[in-house]
Amino acid sequence: MAIDIKNLNHTQLNDLISKAQQRQDELRKEKVGKLREKVHALLKAEGYSFEDVFGAAGPGRGKRRSTGSVAPKYRNPADPEQTWSGRGKRPRWFNDALKAGKKEKDLAI
């Protein structure tokens, strides 16, 4: 299947690239699935479980410290259901309120 990319416009070329990337992701997922099946079959044939070989959490997992959830510090006055803990990226409603002239202390719970 030969595609003459010189005759494609910008939109068509972007569409082709997007479809090619999607197909590449699909092929990778298929390959990973087949490899996973092979590994589990090999482990079963040898009489071991995944946890026996890699531990309960698996390789590279479970080493992160859990910080737990944080109580919200700010509440959207227009919609009290929307809150923010003050951590991470500011929510859109928070930025909009600041642009409208409110101060952080006005939004504090």
From TrEMBL:
Residues 10-37 form a coiled coil. Its main location: cytoplasm. Residues 62-109 form the DNA-binding protein H-NS-like C-terminal domain. Residues 54-109 are annotated as: Disordered. Keywords: Coiled coil, Cytoplasm, DNA-binding. The keyword Protease does not apply. It is found in: Cytoplasm, Nucleoid. The keyword Secreted does not apply. Residues 99-109 have a biased composition (Basic and acidic residues). Pfam families: Histone_HNS (PF00816). PANTHER family: DNA-BINDING PROTEIN STPA, PTHR38097. Belongs to the histone-like protein H-NS family. This is H-NS histone family protein.
